[in-house]
Amino acid sequence: MGRKNNTRIQKYNYKRKMREYNSRSKLFNGNIRSPGEFIFIWALIFAYIVGMWIFLMSMGLHKSDYTQAELSFEGISRKNDSMVFTLSGKEYTVWASACDIDGVLSLKEGDRLSVITAKDSLISAEFGGRTLVDQAAVEKSDAEQKQTCSIIFGIFAALWAVFVGFSVWVMCNAHKLPRWLVHLFVKPSYINRPPK
Questions:
Q1: What does the alpha-carbon distance between residue 61 and residue 189 come to, in Å, rounded to a whole number?
Q2: Sign of the CA dihedral running 115, 94, 64, 142
Q3: What is the domain class of 63-135 according to CATH?
Q4: What angle do CA 58, 61, 63 make, to 5 degrees?
Q5: Contact 134/124 with Cβ under 8 angstroms?
Q6: pLDDT tens digits, residue range 38-85?
Q7: What distance in Å separates the CA atoms of residue 10 and residue 6, rounded to the nearest whole number?
Q8: Nearest in space to 34 (alpha carbons), one of 195, 186, 194, 163
Q9: What b/e readout covers 35-71, taking b as 16+ CB neighbours within 10 angstroms?
Q10: 53, 106, 109, 188: most buried, per Cβ within 10 A?
């Protein structure tokens, strides 16, 4: 009697395990428990990459931020590849390559400059009909920086997409591939094994 009940219990448990195994998620061919966690993490990291790219793009120059004014020249200093103009008590930065260095060095304190600024950047500066800071050169430098940033983040996004694609392939074929390869992408506790 006891042996017969034991066999029935084993059959019942096996059938229950098979029902659970067959009702598993069809994502990744049912090889992975909680596939939503993987998808959430992948999407979160991709959103982080895109968010950082958008943030860095928004830090560049925008025509809507341009302000035209006439400001008093107070001084200039050099910082790495940039020139820092002090105009009417506020500092503005511009790439040295966009400046007419001889014209800038000939300025005297108190000279009135016709300028275009955006945030803390100097876009254009003129004095006595002479262009001291070329607006086209500043905008070209900003466009090049944005392009470089886009390329770098595009490479990050492409590498992430390749990683996710390879992970999906590994998870879909988890029972066919070597365990060491599967364990590089999935913890053993997340792998569904057929009941014995």
A1: 50
A2: positive
A3: mainly beta
A4: 110
A5: yes
A6: 999 999 999 999 999 999 888 888 888 888 989 998 988 888 888 899
A7: 6
A8: 186
A9: beebeeebeeeeeeeeeebeeeeeeebeeeeeeeeeb
A10: 53
